[in-house]
Specification:
MFS_trans_sf; mainly alpha; 546 residues; membrane; single chain; transport; 22 helices; Growth Hormone, Chain: A; sucrose:proton symporter activity; transmembrane helix; 78% helix
Length: 546
């Protein structure tokens, strides 16, 4: 049996006298409601409580906590298992190459995911599990191989393989997970809550990084956990995994998602029914149980493939790699300019952060990592590295503080001002550190690193949200159907996050050679130069929605 719109209209009961009397008064409310439809066909989400936004931000806290622990321990771990120096660049290049190739594919897949749990949360859960697996392998790889393999040479070889695999898996998943988290926020929040959510994300990112660096700086050898577990690395894994699991669980239960099938089919159907009969607003109909029961009866009476409004083929839901590349290449120019500016920002930020502790040890403290381990030069270098870790902790704290200040600065200077100031202050700060390498001035200027970090985590994604809101309003004014083939938020967030991997690839190929030739000082000056170039790009090329 095929259910047509005419037969459905005849099946509905006639409107009551009370409904006819209120028809005119509800017309404006319905029109406003119809104008609140998003490009997926769902209504604009309701306002979210602050507590829910904080719960949603806990994933960023856990992710950055794990990142900071990795930054503190991954080099000692790799050295302890005997990784050859010529394999260092391979470890840091595999993950960003994989992320750069696969992230847009996964972003597009999440846009079309029809899981009953939602579009983004299945991907976030899967990537979180991969992060835990990676941490388990790189922090416990040596102990695991000692338990399973008795021969010394094979044990060392497999320990190197397992540790490298763990580092690659962790970096891949930790970089990858940011895109689905941002898309999840955009899907379930109104525009005002998206702005608040991004600031909470930056705030908790800084707090997680600060606590992670402090965890790495503590001596766990004399604690109760050290006597219960085999090594300090296992203690660190236990604490880090516990914190991340708690944060991930809270995040996944923060805000419920509406499945894509419901957004694209049922809500469109309800809008069509309400628009035809003009009974009252959809919220009132659902509250009264009328449309809910009507839609249930219709589903029971008619097969989905025979319902013209609800039908949709699998070919339309899934994008092949070819169509995905076509979508990326057909992105509007302002999206591409935003990606380029994001690439400049992350190139500048990472070129400074990846070598900062080495810069403190070699340039600021005038030590040497190649001197004998009992020499004054080596001990001086080690002291510089420790002070550099405190500088990174200052960076994380200042990122949290600045993310809070952004909410007050935004109404005054707008997104363009925030974007420009972030790049400018970072470029000037790193330039001064490179020209005048002093301990106290360097630590003070580390606070400007946090300004850049907060800017990179908030402003570009805020612009993505602005672009989507503008596109949705324009298409609704033209009365276009935008939910079927339009580009989703997931692929745009993925394209933006891909710039982090591309920056890592560029730096992994080029900056390592420069450091070996000119020393660590070149990293700070190159960061300053790239940031100032990006500052000009942000000012003149990036488009801002008025």
């Amino acid at each position: 049996m095929t259910l047509t719109k005419a037969s459905f209209h005849r099946a509905l009961p006639p409107p009551s006298e009370e409904v006819r009397a209120n028809m005119d008064s509800t017309r404006e409310k319905e029109e406003a409601l119809l104008h609140s439809v998003t490009r997926t066909g769902a209504m604009v989400p309701k306002k979210r409580p602050v507590g829910r936004l904080v719960m949603h931000s806990m994933a960023m806290f856990g992710r950055e906590f794990c990142y900071a622990v990795e930054a503190a321990f991954v080099t000692p771990v790799l050295l302890s298992v005997g990784l050859p120096k010529h394999l260092y660049s391979l470890v840091w290049l595999i993950s960003p190459v994989l992320g750069f190739m696969l992230q847009p594919v996964a972003g597009s897949a999440s846009d079309h995911c029809t899981c009953s749990w939602g579009r983004r949360r299945p991907y976030i859960l899967g990537l979180g599990i991969i992060m835990l697996l990676g941490m388990a392998l790189y922090l416990n790889g040596d102990v695991m191989m000692s338990a399973f393999i008795g021969e010394r040479d094979n044990q060392r070889t497999w320990a190197i393989v397992i540790t490298m695999l763990g580092v690659v898996l962790f970096d891949f998943a930790a970089d990858f997970i940011d895109g689905p988290i941002k898309a999840y926020l955009f899907d379930v929040c109104s525009h005002q809550d998206k702005e608040k959510g991004l600031h909470y994300h930056a705030l908790f990112t800084g707090l997680g990084g600060a606590l992670g660096y402090l965890t790495g700086a503590m001596d766990w050898g004399q604690t109760v956990l050290q006597y219960s577990l085999a090594s300090e690395f296992q203690v660190i894994f236990f604490l880090t995994a516990l914190v991340f699991l708690i944060c991930l669980t809270v995040h996944l239960h923060s805000i419920p998602e509406v499945p894509l099938r419901y957004e694209n089919e049922e809500t469109k159907f309800l809008l069509e029914v309400t628009g035809s009969y003009k009974y009252r607003s959809i919220e009132e109909e659902i509250k009264n149980g009328y449309l809910k029961s009507t839609c249930t009866e219709i589903k029971a009476a008619a097969k989905p493939e025979n319902c013209a409004v609800m039908s949709r083929t699998e070919d339309q839901r899934r994008m092949t790699l070819k169509s995905l590349l076509k979508t990326l290449l057909s992105m509007p120019s302002h999206y591409r300019y935003l990606c380029v500016s994001h690439l400049f920002g992350w190139m500048a930020f990472l070129s400074n952060m990846l070598f900062f502790t080495d810069f403190m040890g070699q340039v600021v403290y005038q030590g040497s990592p190649y001197a004998p381990h009992n020499s004054t030069l080596y001990l001086t270098y080690k002291r510089g590295v420790e002070v550099g870790c405190w500088g990174l902790c200052i960076n994380a704290i200042s990122s949290s503080v600045y993310s809070y200040l952004q909410t007050m600065l935004l109404p005054c200077i707008g997104l363009k001002g925030l974007y420009f100031i972030g790049y400018l202050l970072f470029g000037l700060g790193t330039g001064l550190i490179g020209l005048f390498p002093n301990v106290y001035s360097t630590l003070a200027l580390c606070s400007l690193f946090g300004v850049m970090s907060s800017t990179l985590y908030t402003v570009p994604f805020h612009l993505i949200a602005e672009y989507h809101r503008e596109e949705e309003s324009l298409k609704l004014q033209d009365e276009e159907q935008t939910g079927e083939h339009g580009r989703g938020k997931g692929i745009d967030c993925a394209a933006l996050t891909c710039m982090i991997q591309l920056a890592q690839i560029i730096l992994g190929v080029g900056l390592g050679f420069l450091v070996s030739v000119a020393g660590s000082a070149v990293t700070v000056m190159s960061a300053s130069t790239v940031a100032l170039i990006g500052c000009c790009f942000v000012a003149f090329c990036v488009r801002y929605v008025e």
